[in-house]
Amino acid sequence: RSEVECLIKLFDALVAKPSNRLAAGGFDRNVFRDTLHSAFGMTDDMMMDRVFRIFDRDNDSCINVVEWVEGLSVFLRGTLEERIKYCFEVYDLNGDGCISREEMFQMLKNSLLKQPSEEDPDEGIKDLVDIVLKKMAIPFLLQDYDHDGKLSLMDFEKSVRDENLLLEAFGPCLPDIK
Questions:
Q1: What residues make up the domain containing 149?
Q2: Which has the closest alpha carbon to 106: 167, 147, 19, 47?
Q3: Of 66, 108, 111, 160, which sits 20 to 30 A from 126 (CA to CA)?
Q4: Is 103 contained in some domain?
Q5: Sign of CA dihedral 56, 68, 174, 158
Q6: 17: in domain
Q7: Of 77, 107, 129, at which residue does a domain stop?
Q8: How much is the average pLDDT of 79-108?
């Protein structure tokens, strides 16, 4: 109860700033991104936009108090199952229920630091996507029997349960321990 009250107070403080107030009683993407950056050190623009979309359940481009509390509940204190579903939704860019090879490529491309080299950086990312698919899509353990290069939620969940480090395989979308 006290944690929820603190989250509501924080929400009220964010909404109380004249520049942040929206008619719907919440705040927009920019305020949310600023909060993710200042409170959790997130810097990846694509990742922050994806996290905003997951929090904004009613798709009105505004985070209301219920979305704020429910979103932070999973973000900060979610069970492994809740965090798996949350990360999967963040990575499923088009919302079709699968993480495709193209979505993996986009997420990894945005989350990896680019090193100056003579090689095409996209080639290294494609190789990394292949490695991830081989690690996550073992036909005997997962449901990717047609080898279509996509991970379903079930594939992702099984892989993460076998190896917890895969939870944020396509970029950091949860706060670190501190």
A1: 80-166
A2: 47
A3: 160
A4: yes
A5: negative
A6: yes
A7: 77
A8: 91
Q: What is the mean pLDDT of the chain?
A: 82
Q: From CA 77, how far away is CA 13, in angstroms rounded?
A: 22
pTM of the entire predicted model:
0.79
Q: How confident is the model at residue 139 (pLDDT cuts 50, 70, 90)?
A: very low
Which positions ≥6 away from 107 have C-beta within 8 Å?
A: 46, 91, 93, 170, 171
137 within domain boundaries: yes
Looking at the chain, the whole-number percentage of residues with pLDDT higher than 90 is: 41
CATH number at residue 64: 1.10.238.10
φ and ψ at 110, to 5 degrees? Answer: -80, -25
Spatial distance between the Cα atoms of 85 and 131, rounded to a whole number of angstroms: 22
